[in-house]
Amino acid sequence: MARRTEAHADNAPGPFFVDRTCIDCGTCYQFAPATFQDGGDHAKVHTQPGDPVSRLWASMALVACPVGSIGTDDKTDVARATQAFPHALADEVYFCGYASEKSFGAWSYLIRRSKGNVLMDSPRAAEPLMANLEALGGVAMMVLSHQDDVADHAAYRERFKCERVMHRADRMTGLEKLVDGDEPIALAEDLLIIPTPGHTAGSLCLLYRDFLFTGDHLWWNPEAGRLSASRAYNWHSWERQLASLEKLLAFDFSWVLPGHGFLHKAESPEAMRRDLEQAIRHLRSL
Fold first, then answer.
1. pLDDT surpassing 90 at residue 1
2. Which domains does the chain have, with CATH numbers?
3. Are 173 and 146 in contact (CB under 8 A)?
């Protein structure tokens, strides 16, 4: 729980604050940028929420924070915020909130499907979220993008008896389904695993309709105004990661939904392909 006595000095005066336990995972300022922003090596409150919608979103960011570093003197919306996840992003795709410190605050997502709901990566094992997932039809499958973002996958397996899917190259044991190789793998008519080794040996993306879930393989950099990937946070092979980015040019999608980094929606698959081509050119020039 955040402590007012440990609050960063650069928080805007008012009820909401970020304290010194912040790990700067980005969750709060990606989800509620009207209130939070990057303060360098930590998040900070740049503007206190002044209307009911902004206060609820700030409270939801508090709930989503993986280390409990956000606090507020006004608890009005906190109880409501605990029940507000999963939060709809578009169509049947939801942000789960309740990020986990075990995965450094990586975002996880719910795909609602008539043939069984899918979790992309694991959120924190929080009872309010699990109860809400149950009310939405449970979880039939959990796809794990790579070894860094598995968080509380075992708790979700125990609760929902979901099949956990991961690439064998990341050497996780005890899962229900391990996939192999570098070729795309259809899990269902509307679910396609695209192996994208590089960040880790077994990194993968999941394509669902117009949505590409990318783990830590690819994300949007708002400061640069382009898609990006990280050479500094590459645990396997930068060259393989660049090759995996080029592989994505063969697929149609308009959304990039990452574990870390900002999400991105292009106007069309063609526009997304241009964004990706620009990113690859830049990353190959580094």
1. no
2. 4-74 (3.30.70.20), 87-285 (3.60.15.10)
3. no
